[in-house]
Amino acid sequence: MSGPVVLVHRDQDLLAAAAAARLLTRIADAQAARGTASVVLTGGGAGTAVLAAVAASPARDAVDWARVEVWWGDERFRPAGDPERNETGARAALLDHVPVDPARVHVMPGPDGPDGDDPDAAAERYAAELRAAAGTGGAVPEFDVLMLGIGPDAHVASLFPGMPGLRDERPAVAVRDSPKPPPTRISLTFPSLRAAREVWVLAAGASKAEAVRFALAEGTDVARAPAAGARGRDRTLFLLDTAAAAELPG
Predict the structure, then answer these.
(1) Does some domain include residue 26?
(2) For 45-58, what is the mean pLDDT?
(3) Number of helices followed by number of strands (H, E) in the chain
């Protein structure tokens, strides 16, 4: 796993614009090298702002969107179209504005999905989809970029401090009794997050400053600050605005 690199931007708008430019470049490079690109999206204010900035960028047409595999790091266990779903925000910000191939948009099921109101079965269904995309012997694809938000409690995806999912080795798990509503979710686990070539942690605002400090401090216990375990195979970026970076040394 790679050690994190910290990049600080003046405010959330500049953070979103810079991250969007970086994402477009990374996708285009991956497509040039391998024909396709694989990205994992996140919700939250910063994550959605990045997607909106991608949609607004003149460079968005440098990407062949029909050859982008789209995944999610976590999802609220709500029906399709529910405003609380990360998918809903991603579609409104970006996916409804670019010619993605619907077969390559890998949505985490909700209670209106084939498994009904059973988040464990829905998580296993998503895990099976990840395994199928990974090919022979793999548990998950080698994502090119996996984006994560970070909560004030230093959670990433829906991996919250002290919860059982932190220790789970399956590709995706159901999360119950989340301390942040809604209580039921589906999340990738650490083995899946760490399979990504690049992991980007996005944070904007003063409410994230303490969590960012914990996540970057040497020797932080992942059970206390799950973001400390968010690392990519080749590269890890913490993309911050000045408020989120305010408690970092120097």
Answers:
(1) yes
(2) 97
(3) 6, 9
